[in-house]
Specification:
Elements: E1 8-10, E2 17-19, H1 39-42, H2 51-68, H3 87-93, H4 98-103, H5 109-112, H6 120-141, H7 143-167, H8 184-201, H9 204-223, H10 229-246, H11 254-282
Antiparallel strand pairs: 1-2
Helix pairs in contact: 2-3, 2-6, 3-11, 6-7, 6-8, 7-8, 7-10, 7-11, 8-9, 8-10, 9-10
């Protein structure tokens, strides 16, 4: 039996017994600890339903594929560009930015670009932040809403980068380029969600910590060359707005889980379409 409709289950966050239909765990405060009756099945995936491991695994696999598909053009010059895939490889798998979107009409890449990375240090630091922030956001909002926030923030970040790199590219230090990739837009979205959580719930510790991290990363982005700050700013705004709409003080619902699954399916479709379309563009 996949779904339990009555009785008690173990809360996936704190390990105490809760009712299957309880809206909130009385021990740790987690919303819907019974996971709509699917707790015995889903709790095996972890507190964030395995999303952190899924993101890390997916990004690493795609990074390796972008290297393998064009080994002759891998960059090894400089620390920041060490083991950087070629632009053709990144384009093929779904890089976003003004060139893919406006020149080639690949608008769906706002979904796929967040799963690609431009170098070994790029993916290492981004995955480190995902590992830090995704479980924490899941604790505050629930795993399903965290996935929705992560996806919307990525879309908002790459949309902002694509549009503002063209219209406001003259502003110094903000950045933007013809091609853009990386999970940092979604990472800033998680930070935005945690900042909103602090404001909505009055938890100054969480809100101030997230705000300090966001400011630190923005300062780093303004100092370092090649950082897409438009994507970071757009991702933060997207995550904050999505968190406000989803409201952490309201219970997580089953339709949030459905929405999270839709986000993941659409992302997978976007990557698949990018590959098929990219093969026709390059006549591979």
């Amino acid at each position: 039996m996949l779904r339990q409709r009555g009785g008690s289950v173990v809360c996936p966050s704190c390990g105490n017994l809760v009712g299957v239909q309880d809206q909130q765990c009385f021990t740790c405060g987690r919303w819907n600890p019974g996971l709509w009756g699917f707790a015995p099945l889903l709790s095996r995936l972890g507190r964030d339903l395995g999303f952190t491991q899924f993101v890390i695994g997916g990004c690493v696999i795609l990074y390796l594929l972008t290297l393998i598909i064009d080994t002759g053009s891998i960059s090894t010059s400089g620390l920041l560009n060490f083991l950087s895939p070629s632009l053709q490889s990144l384009f093929l798998f779904g890089a976003s930015g003004p060139i893919p979107v406006f020149r080639y009409g690949r608008w769906w890449t706002v979904l796929s670009a967040g799963w690609l990375h431009g170098g070994i240090l790029h993916i290492f630091f981004n995955m480190m932040w995902v590992r830090q922030l995704a479980p924490a956001t899941s604790e505050m909002y629930g795993a399903s809403r965290m996935v929705i926030i992560y996806t919307i923030a990525g879309i908002a970040g790459f949309a902002a980068s694509t549009v503002f790199s063209v219209t406001l590219g003259f502003i110094p230090f903000v950045g933007g380029a013809g091609y853009t990739v990386g999970a940092s837009a979604s990472i800033f979205g998680l930070l935005g969600a945690l900042v909103y959580y602090g404001r909505r719930t009055g938890s100054r510790v969480i809100g101030e910590q997230a705000k300090s991290w966001a400011i630190m990363l923005l300062i780093f982005g303004f100092i370092m060359r090649g950082v897409d700050n438009w994507a970071h700013l757009g991702g933060f705004a997207g995550g904050y707005g999505a968190a406000k709409f989803l409201d952490p003080l309201r219970p997580e619902r089953l339709d949030h889980l459905i929405g999270a699954l839709i986000c993941l399916v659409l992302t997978g479709i976007a990557i698949a379409i990018s590959i098929v379309d990219g093969l026709s563009v390059f006549k591979l």
